[in-house]
Structure prediction request, 1302 residues.
Amino acid sequence: MSERRATTANPLLQLDDLSIGYRIRGGIVPAVRRVSFTLEEGDSLGLVGESGCGKSTLAYAVVNYLGRAGVRLRGRVLYEGQDLAALSGEALRSLRGREIAMVDQDPVSCLNPVLPIGEQLMEVPMIHEHATVEQARERAVAMLGEVKLPNAESVMARYPHQLSGGQQQRVVIAMALMGNPRLLVMDEPTTGLDVTIEAAILELIAELRERHRMALLFISHNLGTVMRVCNRLGVMYCGELVEEGEVREVFRNPRHPYTRGLLDCLPTFDTDKNTVTLKPIPGQVPAVPSEAPGCVFAPRCQFVEEPRCTRGEIAAERVAAAAHHRARCVRQAELPHWEPAQSIREAPVTPALSPEPLLRIDGLDKSYEAAGVHWFRKGKDGGVHALNGITVSAAKGRTLAIVGESGCGKTTLARVLTGLEEASGGTIRFGDSDLARTGVNRRTKALKRAIQMVFQHPDGTLNPSHTIGFTIARTLRRLASIPAGEMKRAVENLLQKVNLPAEFSRRLPRQLSGGQKQRVAIARALAGNPELVVADEPVSSLDVSVQAAILNLLLEIQTASETTMLFISHDLAVVRFLADHICVMYLGRVMEYGTVEEVFDPPYHPYTEALLSAAPVTDPDAKRRRIVLEGSLPDPSEPPRGCPFHTRCPRKIGPLCEDTLPPEHRLPGGHRIACHIPLPELQAMEPVLTRSRAEAGD
Amino acid sequence: MARFIVKRLLFMAATMLTVSILLFGLLEISPGSVATKVLGPYTSQEQRDLWLEAHGYFRPLHVRYLDWLGHLVQGEFGESIRFKVPVAEVLWPRLSNTAVLGGLVLVIMVPFSLALGVLAGMKEGSPLDRTISLFSIVTTSVPEFASSVILAALFVFYLGLLPGTSTMASGFSWREMVLPVLVLVLYDFGYVTRMTRASMVEVMTRPYIRTAVLKGLPHRRVIFRHALRNALIAPFTVIMLQINWLLSGVIVVEFFFAYKGFGSLLLEASLNQDLFLIEACTMVSVLVAVGTQTLADIGYVYLNPRIRFS
Amino acid sequence: MTEVISKPATRRLPLVGLLSRVLLLRESWVGMIGAALIVFWVLLAFTAPLISPYHPNATLVPYAVPGTAAPDGGTFWLGTDHIGRDILSRVIWGTRTVLVYAPLATLSAYALGIVLGLAAGYYRGWMDEVLSRFSDLVLSFPVLVLYILIIVRFGSSGLNIILAVTFASAPGVMRIVRGLVLDIRDRDYIAAAQMRGESPWYIMFVEILPNVRGPLIVDGCLRLGYVTITIGVLGFLGLGLPPPDPDWGGMINETRSMAMAFPHMALFPCLAISSLVLGLNLLADGLREVLLDA
Prediction:
């Protein structure tokens, strides 16, 4: 293919002072503002930013696909020196798919549901290179092999819905590579995938980029993923590229206050709630970028200096120490040196351990009848075992984290605890009562009050037809005994507790941001002064800066009222920060249980080890042992025999794992690991994550 | 797939059975009124009893039902009170006349409405889309009886181009078919067009269309290979269900243009309390409706690999 | 720590919110034309005694064509029918008939359909199974055949027409409501309501119902148009309201046989009903943009 690639002096991709807006009723909203950067052959640039920062718009601008509402306001996108906007439809078409390929987020919606995979792959060379059917087929099969899909021939004949999410994304990547593109644009390609699957896909992307020497523009909201596949990092805020440079350099020496803010929000693997507090960025991203002169970040910046920061146009400045490091900040050279260690707490927040646990779950089972077709599809043996012999406990005022990927049963556990579903076996001791088979309708008012829940999706958590005040007042009326005259005061008190102004009680959910909705949801859960709060991924759909504020709020409330928390999450860094005990689940079974220190240090369960290796890390000095899991998550309705993890386990010891359920190793102190591997061998494992300043800059 | 078809056919049979029970309950439950309808209101109680005895109406209810059902299944519907001949003799010719009318309507309406719907839905909000959408709203707003009157006034009274009745008195005549077909096409095409448009609009916003465009495929291939294949699944069902609506329209149109079809027969039977003819017509029309629904369901699954292979 | 307030609280109550959404209709000219047509007919219905030139049942001059001078010095703007009744007056008075029966029948179908749909969607299980099978059964009849059967069996009267429409349309409404409820009942705010011990009744009517109103309003407009047509068809087939009070469908039925010689007799009621239905369909189209796409 190299003969059609004329070498010119022009960079492969150049964005020159690009501004893009969207036409709405009565005006244009800017989405991307004055962005410039270049991408050379073999370069890889990761663009990160919170939702609404314009990163996706930028990705689509690179393929000149802005939709009818999109308008280019100024500047140019140059591909090998030619302005994409000036190209004819035909010229643009021959560029797309062959020179520039795109991979979107949500692979299932990007594949045509009614066409077989093979046809969707083969059409690329057949259209662009007039390849014959045989040639195209040969290339497609080879490409499916390259993205490591087993049985490439049989995948060709299948339809998209017959593949798992990770496999679908591999197909989409293969499809993008079918035209041998020189520039690959990826928009959040791993969002929505499970952590171990995400890690495998990122590994694949990095490998393919090397092999095909493609330039890569990689869009993500997650700083950690960028670090795995890119050599350069761009940080976007309010449509502007505020900082750009070599990845490790930016992480080590962030010069823009916003980049620093983002890094300060992230919990890391060597800190926890007893040593540091997270530092959220004050204020929130404006819904519509302001047209005011000066720096867009000035209203939220702790280093703001009048009038320098609020006047005129702020240009990107070169950072003195590094060749390719620019920051759009007038004070970038004056800022103090940045240190990752966040503000240190004086006293630990964890209360002294009370002798008797508040919550004790023992041998909990939950299976769904084949007839009741919900939650999971029905299994062959007539039922689905969502939970199998779960045994964990939580002490008063402590946080128990449940960690696992989709289908592991963590949400079912939450629903059984809160009485939305009833268990099929086992016990849940909570104070004097057994909750396992007591649905919410049969719980006393005191019990309903004692256990409340915070949900995952801010958009579904509040009834869109009811005002905030109505929702909270109704909950207070049901769960707390408050005289009608004092209701207004009580609602305002609760709002104040979650740092929302009293005025919010008259608002409807759609007038709130995601973080604000989640605060209301927390206020609602607090209405009856609960003893146990079940939080099901409460921060996973929030931007990092909002996530930090919500985590702080949860901690604050927990410390103030000694609330016990069951915290469900897939994010190990968050769990490391917040939890006291951790329970790692896989396909409805407990794989490992112990204190944070016990779980995050060897001996590991092989699954925990893989999860730790998969977790995105932003620390440029962190060393990680790479463990890539093969294959997909099994269908939870038909879990494998023996150890449920044996199909993907890199440490599988033999047929024993396939046939027999592993015993639990019980270590002193309560640490439990369910694995066939002998304990001494597990204890001999190396830590997955280590930190070494000395090897920095590899 | 085969299991699904068998399931749907069984379901169809169950529906027909339930309908027959309902119908029996509605019309045959009291022998007295059956006799009155068959023999006329001016007969003596003795005469009626004799007739009822002779036709087995004094047997237990379930025996009568099973007997009635048995005859129904064999196509023995009894004798028409109005036409004084076995019901089957009037029913089948009328049914075939209506099949000709309905077939013509579908042959014209389906390609026409699919083409318009796809054209409109390809680019939402374009002038072409707005024109087609508005046109189809207007035509679906004029009920069949109104468009019959309006078109008859125009083509028959003012322009004198077409005959005002479609009795086919002197054999089949294309000229007499024009107005009935036109009325039905006008009323029905709008709905199919709008559904096709909605489906097409929806498909065009899907990420896989964006993917196809960004793969550098020519516009024609994006539309024909990627969009249409998805966008035409929903209209297929709509068209099959439209046959159910067509049966209603046929009654109005045949009545207005005096076309000797199934619809006017059903109406005539109803207005004259022609008991056995009503029963036969109802069962036949429900059979057609349920049959097309079953076909629609099976076709939907066949066209949709997401369901076919799961 | 506190997130800054970005938008002013303009909408206070859900009802005001809904109203302000509906008022966005002024941006859709299609919807505005529809609303104007409906307002026109509603005004006619209210002011019928004031503006109709003659009594709708008064027999004056038979077979007068439109524009004929009336004996009392007035004009038969739309002509008269075969027994000499003024068509303009009958069209105006007929508005009252259709605007009473169609909305009443539609409302009653909605009341039943909503209750059944909420129950089927919220409880699922056998309740859903029974209700869905029943609605499948009703919907498997060609709709006009069903009406004819009911009217023939029970006789034609205003009440029977309302009952027939309710019986035949409620299953359709139920299906729509059920589908919407199935989607909403798994939202977290429903779980939150269950966790604070709300009754199923409260959850169905206070937590779920307000969130399905958008699609229901749009569907209601379309269905009202269809019910208007149905009542017209029944009148046209001679199964409608008993004469002599004016009813558009009935007027067409009575003068149908003369349509080839005196088309005006049937033409004007046809145009009346078509324009009313057109208004409803256009309004539904406008509301769809405003209530569902936003």
In short: Chain B has a mean pLDDT of 90. The radius of gyration of chain B is 24 Å. Chain B touches chain A at residues 206-208, 210-218, 221, 225-226, 229-230, 233, 303-306, 309-310 (CB under 8 Å). Chain B has 14 helices and no strands.
